[in-house]
UniProtKB/TrEMBL annotation:
Biological processes per GO annotation: carbohydrate metabolic process
InterPro entries assigned: Glyco_hydro/deAcase_b/a-brl (IPR011330), NODB_dom (IPR002509), PdaB-like (IPR014132), Polysacc_deacetylase_ArnD (IPR050248)
Signal peptide: none
Protein name: Polysaccharide deacetylase family sporulation protein PdaB
GO molecular function list: hydrolase activity, acting on carbon-nitrogen (but not peptide) bonds
Gene Ontology cellular component list: membrane
Gene transcribed to yield this protein: pdaB
PANTHER family, A to Z: GLYCOSYL TRANSFERASE-RELATED (PTHR10587), POLYSACCHARIDE DEACETYLASE PDAB-RELATED (PTHR10587:SF128)
């Protein structure tokens, strides 16, 4: 091929490449931005979807009086999909309840070891705490956790980067039931039913500190179903559309 022909071919190839890039930018203008957002450290609060799906999530770090009634309600209401975030010490102290959560088919996530704010401690301490709870949950339930809800929902960019490097996805919530404040059964129920949206992650507790959740939970389940919602695990929710995140 002559030099002139080679140059012509090179110029045509370059023009085609530029033109393809321009078309991509026109018809998919958010792709680069979406990739940029997804690349940043983030916690997941909800999923952007039109499907009426919600994830019921329960944190457990203390007690044995509330967890079993919560599990009983879920069984009676035929709720087979929910996600429980367990602390390491609680799992060790109450292995039969933890095993029951697993055997009932519910998803299990990590809720840390000591219930302290991660952002107040160095990465080495965070890794140690997560590994301790991960080991406890694995030994009791044979589940290797990949989702984590940090104690008190506390995190910053550094904490998320540390947890991501350990293979964890940080899960927050979009609707907080505030059941841990024990504001009254109606207040808990109405807060969830009024705030829940498609793709929601709903925060509740199955610790003994949440004294009214067992009365509110049946109403929450019935109310959400009446609105047309279906229950899925957090992992199932994450497969839906684009994840709504918050970068710290």
């Amino acid at each position: 091929m002559h030099m002139r022909a080679r140059r012509k071919l090179f110029l045509l190839t370059l023009i085609a490449t530029v033109f393809t890039g321009m078309l991509s930018a026109v018809f998919n203008p958010l792709s680069a931005k979406a990739k940029e957002i997804q690349a940043k450290p983030h916690a997941v609060y909800k999923v952007d979807t039109d499907k009426k799906l919600v994830a019921l999530t329960f944190d457990i770090s203390w007690g044995n009086k509330t967890p079993e009634p919560v599990l009983k309600i879920l069984k009676e209401k035929h709720v087979t999909k929910a996600t429980f975030f367990l602390s390491g010490p609680w799992t060790v102290r109450h292995p039969e309840i933890a095993k029951n959560i697993k055997n009932m088919g519910f998803e299990i996530g990590n809720h840390g070891n000591l219930h302290k704010d991660f952002s107040n401690y160095p990465d080495s301490w965070i890794r140690q705490q997560v590994q301790l709870s991960e080991k406890a949950i694995k030994q009791v339930t044979n589940v290797k956790t990949t989702l984590i809800r940090t104690p008190n929902g506390d995190f910053n960019t550094r904490v998320i980067q540390c947890l991501n490097s350990m293979g964890y996805t940080v899960i927050q919530w979009n609707t907080d039931s505030l059941d841990w404040k024990n504001p009254g059964v109606s207040a808990i129920t109405n807060r969830v039913l009024n705030r829940a949206v498609p793709g929601d992650i709903i925060l509740m507790h199955a610790s003994d500190s949440s004294k009214q959740i067992t009365q509110a939970l049946p109403q929450i389940i019935d109310g959400l179903r009446a609105k047309g919602y279906q229950f899925v695990t957090v992992s199932e929710l994450l497969t839906q559309a684009k994840v709504k995140t918050q970068v710290q």
